[in-house]
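Section 3.1: Structural characterization of target chains.
Under the original work plan, the team committed to producing a structural model for every single-chain target entering the pipeline before any wet-lab resources were allocated. The record below documents one such target. The sequence was received from the expression subgroup and is listed exactly as submitted; it comprises 305 residues.
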Amino acid sequence: MNPFFIRSPWRRELISTTLDFLANEHQVALVTLCNIEGSAPYPLGTQMLVRDDGFFVGQITGGCAEQAIADQALVNLQSKTNGTQRFGLNSPYFDIQLPCGSGIDVLVDVETPIEEYQEIQTSLDARREISKVLKFDTGSIERKYLPNQRLVLVGQGPILMHAAKLSLATGFDVCCLAQDDRTLDYLRRYDLQASLLADTQLEESLLDRYTGVVSLFHEHELENDILSLALNSESFYIGALGSRRTHSQRREQLIAQHGHDMRELERIHGPVGININAQSPSQIASAVVSQAIDELNKAIDGISN
């Protein structure tokens, strides 16, 4: 059985949504944050999508100016020309202020042909990064599109369930591999589609640089093959549950059984999770997912669609 990934409901699928709108004979404007004067809640390159009926997807200012941005996009759609617009500091929209007191410029793009969106989506479907240079009045910006970031969660117990829920809520696609039938039933009880580890073909090629692996076993002798597989891959994050003593024993076993060296073993975060003095399964899961997010942001230069 091939691993199954649950798609995060909070992932911003702007390119695939763009193609869906175009397929249904809508016109669209893709709006990109192209300049920041001061500070802003989202980084350069953040995008939102506006449909010709005013419906929009995504955020650039966290709710302060999205409606005004969408209204401007409709003007550009009507004229069929690209343009930039300032919001916040020194903007003609004096009644729309950003809480940080900053100014932002957005590029409203209504001229990109469908073939370019298809090219981006093809790369993302193949789990390849792709970049596009977007030109505006005073310069240009390189916008990186990254494949969906994912976490493979393997093991047993309530930490696995909580980690899966939190991962989905923070934008990760998730694969849950249960150690036993009891854990499998437990995950399904909480509406998480999962597979038995014994029935799943987990391969190194699946563990690309956009996929992390978390071992949540209590019987740690079961995890060594999985951790070795992750160490041989480009996974951006590898975490393993257990005490410092357990982690020391884990390292010794990975050296003896799989031939890994200490430099490679430094990639494993063990004990897993940032130190928040967690006292419950949900808190441990929060520490784990937070650490995965931190490692993701350090490992990947750019933002995802």
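The mean pLDDT is 92.
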